[in-house]
Amino acid sequence: MIKAINLTKKFKDFTAVDGINLNVSAGEIYGFLGPNGAGKTTTIKMLTGTLKPTSGQIFIMDKDYNNYELEIKREIGVVPDEPKMYENLKGSEYIEFVMNVYKLNSNEIHSRFNEICDAFGIDYLNDYIGDYSHGMKQKLMVASVLMRKPKVIFLDEPTVGLDARAARILKELLQKYKSEGSAIFFTTHILEIAEKMCDRIGIIDHGRILAEGNLEELRSLSKLGNRSLEDIFLELTGGSEVKEIIDEL
Fold first, then answer.
1. Domain that holds residue 106
2. CATH code, domain carrying 97
3. Chain segment 24-73, per-residue pLDDT in tens
4. Which of these, 23, 56, 192, 200, has the minimum number of CB atoms within 10 Å of its CB?
5. Residue 249 CA from chain centroid, whole number
6. Which residues 6+ apart lie within 8 Å of 108 measured at CB?
7. How many structural domains comprise the chain?
8. Contact yes or no for 151/93 (Cβ under 8 A)
9. pLDDT, tens digit, for every residue of 119-176?
10. Is the Cβ–Cβ distance between 23 and 3 less than 8 Å?
11. In terms of pTM, does the model score above 0.90?
12. Cα–Cα distance, 81 to 15 (Å, whole number)
């Protein structure tokens, strides 16, 4: 469902993503983890077609981005790290705009959207988006994506700004979509979420994938015998000196 081959992105002399390879299957939740500036968001932007790679190939549902960009964008769903919306529109107008862009006018789509709104407590569609909090925008962005039931879903820090109830509902919805065959690719800094939800995890740092696999496979890579994803992550990304730093403060 998602395949990247030697994917690279350079900004002048700086290499943000350095020849990474990815392969995500249907019915799989793939967690993409890394420190700030590791290349996570740049990778998602390339995979979703908002940033052109310097080199490498991307296939979504066996379609090459170079030849099928618009078709791919019609079929994927993207929740960015910052929900950018037209702030002079009301929530209802924004959803109408999205439905028109994707030519979605079926009763099924409207019914699904209303159900998602009820689940997330979205009762502010008649208010202007410019008056929304970050969490309110995030819920509406998630609803606008999930109502389409895309087969490939990209989420960049999707739980940031969500309250505990909304975050739990989102996690349950993603599990439901996974069981129905969707491929889900998401980044998060909350490692407990990744540990509980992901079938496989990739850890990126300085633009390169350091490790990839399920939790047991990642545990086998630990030279210190670490068991939790947080400890493995810190060991691999050079953050294992946290205790020493705290002791020195």
1. 2-248
2. 3.40.50.300
3. 999 999 999 999 999 999 999 999 999 999 999 999 999 999 999 999 99
4. 192
5. 35
6. none
7. 1
8. no
9. 999 999 999 999 999 999 999 999 999 999 999 999 998 888 889 999 999 999 999 9
10. yes
11. yes
12. 21
